[in-house]
Amino acid sequence: MGVTGQCLCGAVRFRTGATPTGASVCHCAMCRRQSGHLWASAQVPKPALEITGPVRWHDSSEAAQRGFCPTCGSFLFWHARAEDMISISLGALDAPTGITLEKHIFTADKGDYYTISDSLPQKE
Length: 124
Prior knowledge:
Blueprint: E1 3-6, E2 13-16, E3 21-26, H1 29-35, E4 39-45, E5 49-52, E6 56-59, E7 64-68, E8 75-80, E9 85-89, E10 103-105, E11 122-123
Parallel strand pairs: 3-10, 10-11
Antiparallel strand pairs: 1-2, 2-5, 3-4, 4-9, 6-7, 7-8, 8-9
GO molecular function: carbon-sulfur lyase activity; metal ion binding
Protein name: Aldehyde-activating protein
InterPro entries: CENP-V/GFA (IPR006913), Mss4-like_sf (IPR011057)
C-alpha cells in the first residue's frame, strides 16, 4: 500500500509505492520544538520515496536531518544519514492512509504539559 502527501501550501508533494512501517509518535525535544507539539511518522525505504518541490534540509544533529517546505514551513521528513529508511509525516498524508500508530518514542523527554493517555507501547 503506497501513500501520497503534501505540505500545507502544496509546494512540496511526495509519494511512495512502499508500505509505511513503524508508525510512531515522537516526544523528543527536537520534534516538539519543530512541530509545535508532537511528531507522528512512519518509515519507508528512501529510494522508494519520490519528492517533488523545494524541500529544505536542516542538519538537526550530526546523525540526522529534517526536511521541510521552505514556503510554509511544514515539517515533512526525518532521515538518519546512516539509514536507508526515511520517516514521513503522518499529518501530511492524504487520507485514507490505512496506517495505525504502533508506539510512542522518546517518552522520557516528553513535555510536562500533557499526558500520554492511550495504551500504545512507550519507549523511553
